[in-house]
Design a protein that fits this description.
Blueprint: H1 17-28, H2 44-47, E1 49-52, E2 58-61, E3 73-77, E4 83-89, E5 95-102, E6 111-118, E7 124-131, E8 136-141, E9 145-147
Antiparallel strand pairs: 1-2, 1-9, 3-4, 4-8, 5-6, 6-7, 7-8
Bound molecules: zinc ion.
Zinc ion binds next to loops.
């Protein structure tokens, strides 16, 4: 739209309205071949996805991360002396649970645990912790997960 009458906003300060016409033409152009804004925003949910390192099945996402006892990441040894670094998540939709919850050797007092596996490939990814009061969270082994990555191709 172009207004060559007196009231035309930004160009009204120029001495000669017709000169400004030229500029206007250059500036407007036909348009359409290049969009200044990129189409397709980056999908935040994909970047925050946390997936099984083996099969890249999405297990949980960063938005489910929770702090347990004041921190999200915990380091523990299991009874066999193996070190685990785990992150705590309020939900892990990609996990399948196995076994009955047991309070034995629980890293979180008051919470019983059972194993959590990747529901796609069956890899052991961590543990689900459950309190008698109904609180639930997942402690997932961080080096068995990948964050913000998708399978190549
Ligand atoms: Zn998997």
């Amino acid at each position: 739209m172009r207004f060559d009458s007196t009231g035309s906003s930004e160009r009204s300060g120029s001495p000669g309205g017709y000169l400004c016409f030229r500029k206007g033409d250059e500036r407007q152009g036909p348009g359409g071949d290049e969009l200044p804004e990129q189409e397709g925003r980056p999908a935040a949910s994909e970047e925050e996805a946390i997936s099984c390192k083996i099969c890249r099945f999405e297990i949980t996402s960063r938005e489910h991360a929770v702090e347990i006892d004041g921190q999200n990441e915990h380091t523990f040894f299991n009874p066999a002396g193996i070190l685990f670094e785990i992150g705590c998540f309020a939900a892990a939709p990609g996990c399948a649970d196995a076994g009955k919850p047991t309070p034995e050797f629980s890293w979180f007092p008051g919470f019983a645990w059972h194993y959590s596996f990747c529901s796609a490939c069956g890899a052991h990814l961590g543990w689900k912790f459950q309190s008698g009061e109904g609180s639930v969270f997942w402690g997932l082994v961080l080096n068995r997960l990948v964050e913000g990555e998708r399978a190549a191709g």
